[in-house]
Amino acid sequence: MNANLMELEAPARPVREREGLPGDFAIWIFILAELLVFGIFFIAYAFARSGHVELFNTSQLLLDRTSGAINTLVLITSSYFVVRAVAAIRENRNRLCARWLGAAVLLGFVFLGIKSFEFYAKFSEGITLSTNTFYMFYLSLTFFHFMHVILGMVILAVVMVKAHQGGYSRDDHTGVETGASYWHMVDLVWIILFPLVYVIR
Known about the structure:
This protein has 201 residues and is an all-alpha fold. The protein has helices at 2-9, 25-51, 53-60, 65-90, 94-124, 133-164, 174-199.
């Protein structure tokens, strides 16, 4: 009887966060669909390369690996900033969360700037999708990823503005986790794309 009374009088425990995937479930459907598309691209690239090894190796040497490596570090660092943003909002610190997201978006601009310079250099050399099979894949894959970076930056910017306005809290920050999940997908794809297209011979 006393035990029952103690249970009734005990203060309610705080509601635990939803277990499972972070963010909105719908974003994970979208992420899986995007990864499937990139996966098909990567498999097609591997098959094409197996039939034109010399062409792919020769063309690959003309890519700017330094720029690709710098962009890899840029995206990895931006993902770390996004992780810090999620940690900040879990501590109910909206403004700090917004600052971390702003830093991630800034690095997104750095990535786009470096990649745009690469595209400009290739187009200036007369290289297009029809130059050869390697460049068809290189330009298609990197531009497709380029557009995903832009979309990711838009998502992070929207979340950043809402966080700056105090729109999230320790108990309600699904939007931050949703944006973070998408950005990590963009980062993951580049981590696979860079060695596959720029390095592996």
